[in-house]
Amino acid sequence: MHHGFARIALRDLRALRGSLSVTSVLSVDRSQLPAEIATLTDGYAFEQITLGRSGNAVYRLSAPGRPTLFLKAGAGEQRAALADEAARLRWLAGRLPAPELVAEVERGGGVFLLMTAVPGVDCSDRSHAADVPAMVRLLAEGLRLIHAAPLDDCPFDHTPRAELERARRRLELGLVDAGAFDADPAEVFEELLRLEPREPDIVLTHGDYCLPNVLIDGGRLSGFCDLGRLGAGDRYRDLALAARSLAYNWGAEHVPLLFEAYGLPQPDQRRLEFFRLLDEFC
To answer: Mean pLDDT score of the chain, rounded to an integer?
Structure first.
């Protein structure tokens, strides 16, 4: 195994690093918003989220006495990603604690998603420093909750074979960030094929189970966000990213507790490596 193949790319560091960063309150020109979005957000103050890997414009919306909302907007390549997230939020409604899709509007080649906010602070927030093990146990609880959810009618295929096909297409189209690797991406893809799980353990997966996407409120798990990659997949798809994100944000010494609390004290290192490597092709 060529352990030096994959580096954590800058885009991943942004995803793994701490809490949401926001600018000052913005004065938004509502004439630039679709009419439905402008009406639904009338009276709200907009704060732009400046941390993340999606490439979308993301805003937190707040108003006295009204529920906090999030607005995401994107065009071009990001249009499909937002459509994916909207589809998953519609399917997920009532199944798991997640944002509720308030509106999805297309205009001028772009897409606008307005959704409710999950309460609490994310698992990378420094407020957890006083009791990191408690946060880690809640992180594991979230994994168990998602993985136990029924997926009989889940239309989103993120099984290893489907993910490898997506990776192959991105590689052929030149969409893979070569800077994420210490070797030619084509060589890394061959390594992926060698590591592919032969008997995948398919459950419902989040797809981007990094600490900023898991929320805690009042010492309890409150829900999940950024669900555009949710679907049926191998449970290690989430375990690998959760362990990597935990190590980056709070230190590798906490990773064994994550697996122990999840109920997998001796994880399959080969599968972890496969899904860490596969994520670099996404």
So the answer is: 89
